[in-house]
Amino acid sequence: MSTKKGRLTGEHFMLGDHACAEGAVLAGCRFFAGYPITPATEIAERMSVRLPQVDGNYVQMEDELASMNAILGASWAGVKSMTATSGPGFSLMMENLGLGIMLETPCVVVNVQRGGPSTGLPTLVGQQDMMQARWGSHGDYEVIALSPSSPQELFDLTIRAFNLSEKYRTPVLVMTDAEVGHMTEKVVIPPLEEVEIINRPEVQKGDIEPDLFRIYRNSPQNSPGYISPMVKAGEGYRIHVTGLTHDERGYPAMNAEANEWNVSRLMEKIRANRKDIIELETDKLRNAEVVVISYGISARTSLWPIEQARKEGIRVGYLRLITVWPFPEDTISKLAKKVNAFVVPEINMGQITREVERSTGGDARVFGVHKPGGDILNPRDVLAAIRKAAAAVQKA
Amino acid sequence: MSTGEMHRSERLRILNYDTPAVSDWETGLHPMDDLLRGERLPHIWCQGCGLGTALTSFISSLKWLEKNRGWDLDKVAVVSGIGCTGRIAGYVRLDSFHTTHGRAIPFATGLKIANPDLKVIVISGDGDIAGIGGNHLIHAARRNLSITVVCVNNFNYGMTGGQVGPTTPHEARAVTAQYGNYEFPFNLPYLATASGASFVARWTVLHARRLTWTLRNALTHSGFSFVEIIAPCSTAYARWNPEGKGLDPENLRRRGLEVMKHYQKVGKIDHDVHPKDAHVKVNNQGEILEIIEGEFLDETRPDFKEAINQRADLAEKYWLSEKGTLDKRKVLTSRKKRVPRKEIQLGGFGGQGIMSAGKIIGMAAAVFNNLQACFTQSYGPEARGGAAGSQVVIASSPIHHPHLTQPTSMIIMSQGAYDKYVADLAPGGVLLIDDELVTLPADHRKDIKTFGISATKIAEQAGNNRAANTAMLGFWTAVEGIVDKDAMQESIAESVPPKTIKLNLDVFEAGHKIGLTIDK
To answer: Residue B147 sits in which domain range?
Structure first.
C-alpha cells in the first residue's frame, strides 16, 4: 500500500462538505458509513470517491442507525471511521452514539445542521441541535463537540475531531451547519508531514498476557481522566465489550456500584482533560464591558457588528467557542465577574445562551440573539443587541 | 472492579491446571472450555432453553474449523444484539461485541468491511434480527457481504417475558397476544433468500449435529449466509402454547424437552424445497404441525468486498485525472491592488452553468489572485427548474458575512433571473446580460450600468452553446476588472471538462474582447 497514494495537498476552492471529507482523509479516516441527507450529502459523495483512492471503504447504509453502528464496528477493527448527517439522521444516531460512548469507541460524527424540528428546513441553516449533541442519547455522559465557521476550519476541525476521538477513545461530534457545509471558499490542505495526527493508544498481539488484559483498565495511579489502551478485534485478546454497565474486563456488572464506576469513568476522562479539549478564540476580552459569545457561522457573522460597535465606542470582547462541548464554564464564570454583559447570537431559540446564563451564576447579564433556522443572523440584530447590552449596563 | 466471580486464570491456578498430569476432567474443564468464558458461567438461560444447544453447535463448528480447516480463532468475532440470544457474545471466549437492540448486523458490517481477514458472525434472536433489526437483515443480505447471521428463533420476546414477535405463529399465544396472534409471522429463510442472501438454512436445536455441519458450511461460505435455529423457550412461549400444555410450570427442563420431542415429531428435512415453501405450519390453535428444515440455498456470487475491489482501478483512474489537473496548475502572482468587498449575483436558468460560472469567479479570486472569496448557491425547490442563482463575495480582507447584502455586480442570463434579481442591484452597480435572452423593459433601472452581449450566440458559433457562461465571464472580467484575466483563464481551464478547455477559453476571449470595447 503506497502511503502517498491519493494524497491531496495545496490550495483549493472547495465546498465546506468536501473540505470536511478531505480533513477526514488526511486524518487517516479509512471507513465511512452514511445515509444521504441534505445538507450533509456532499460529504458522503466526496468520501465515496476519495476513500477507494486511499485503500479505504465507503458503504452506504440503509439508515442512520446502521451508519452509526457500522462506524463503531469499523473502529473496533482498528480503522478510523466517520459518518455525516443532519438533524433527522442525527436523531437516529443518538441510540448508538450512546453505544459508542459506552464502549469507548473512537469515531467522528459530523452534523451539518439544518432548520428543525422534524424534517424542518432541509436546505437551510440552523444551529438547533447543539443541546441534542450534549444530551441526545440517554443516560449520563460527557461529549466532545466542535463548531467550525468556514470550510477551512471545517477541514481543520475534522482532523482535530479525529485526534481527540483517538486520544480520548470517544465519539467526537463536528457540529457544523448548512451555511458552512454548502459554502465554497479557499481551503489549504497541508502535506501530511506538517499535520499532527494522533492515533489511539493500542495494545497489539503479544504485548500483554490476554488473561491479564483489561479493555477498560483503571489507571495505575488512579489518576483521573486516564485513557486505557484499546485493542482491535483479531489480536488474540478475545475481548468482550457490551453496552451494558460493565467492569474493567468489559463484562456486564448489574449493580449501582458498577454503574457509578462506569459512568464516572466516561465523564471523568473528558472532565479531567478539559484544558486540552477546550479550544477558544478570544479578542479584546481585557477591559471589555460586553462580550459576544458565539460559535460556528454565527460567530463569524458577529464580527462585522462587533467592529461597528467598537467604532461606536462600546468596549466589545469576543469569545468564540471552537469547542462547544465540554462547555468552558470556568472561563465564562471568571469572565462574568469582570464584564457587565454577554451577548449570545445563535441560530436557535437560546440553547447555548442557557449555558452562558448557567455559567455566569448571575454575575453578568445575558442577552441572546435568537431566531430559529432558515437564515444566518442579520448582523444588525446582533449590533442592536450589543448596543442594548451596553446601554442596560450603563443604566445599572 | 470485580464482579465477585473468580477469574479463569485464578481458577486454573487453584486447580493447578499447569500440571500436565491433571486431566481436563479433574480440573472440571469441558473440552470446549477454551471457547467459553468460564468466569461468566453459569449462564442466565432458563432450564430447558434451546440456546445452550445452539451455542454448543456453534462452538463445535468453530472447533472443527480450527482443527480441520486451520482457522485461527483469534480472527473470529461474534456480534450480538439484545435479548436472551444476545447474551451468547458474553459467553464465548472470542472477540465479542454485545451491541444495541437490533444493531448487531450493521456493527458486524463495519467490522468485516474494515478488516476482511476477520470471520464475523452475528448471533441474535428473532426479535433482534427480524423485528427491531429487520431492515438491517434485508440490506446486509442484499449486499452479500461475507458475514454469517445466526438467528435463534424461539417465536417470542423471551427476555422481556414472552411478548408476541415477528416470528410468533399465527394464532399462537403470547403475553401480549392472549387472544391469539392476529398477525402473520415472517418466514425467515424466504425473507433472507428474497433479500439476496446466498446461503440459507434452518434447523431446530433437536438436529444439533446437522446444525453443526450447516454452521461449518455457513461460516466457510463466501457471501452472506443466514441460519435460522428454532429453539424452545421453555419459560415463556411453552407456557402459553399447546407445545407445553399440561406440563408442570415449575419443571422447565421437562417443558423444554417436551418441546424438543415435538420438534422431533414435526420436523421435516427437505433441502430441495424452495425457501418460499419452507414453512412453519400451524393449526388454528397456533400449534406447530410441521417445520421444514435443511440447507435451502447455497449459491456463489461475488461478495460485497470483491465487488468493491473490482472497482479499485477506476478509483485510481479518477485520482490520476484529478491529480493531473492539479499538477498542471500555474502559480500566478497575487493581485496587488486592494479589492473592497464586491458582491456578484449570477442568475439564469438550469443548464446554463450559472453555478459553475460563479465558482470559476470565486476560484480565480481565491486560488489564483490570492483574494478572499466566498461562493454560495441558492438551494431549495425554488432553485430547481426555473431561476438558478449563485453568489460570489470577493474582498481583500476576511469575509465575515458570506451572503450578499447588496450586489454590486450582476451576470444575468434569463428573463426570469432579470425579473428576480435586478431590483437588488446597488445603485451605480453593473448589470451584464445576454442580450438575446433578456429584453429590457421600458422602465428598466436608469441608476445602474447595463451592458449586453450575445453570449449564447458566441458560444454557438464556437461550437457549443453550453459555453455561453464563459462568454459572459470574459465579458465580466473585462468590464469589472475585479479579478485578473489570467486568473480567470486558469480557473476555467481547471474547472471545465478537459476536452472543452480550448473551446471555453476561445469563447472567454471573445467575450473579453467585447468587454474591452465597452465605454464604461
So the answer is: 45-301
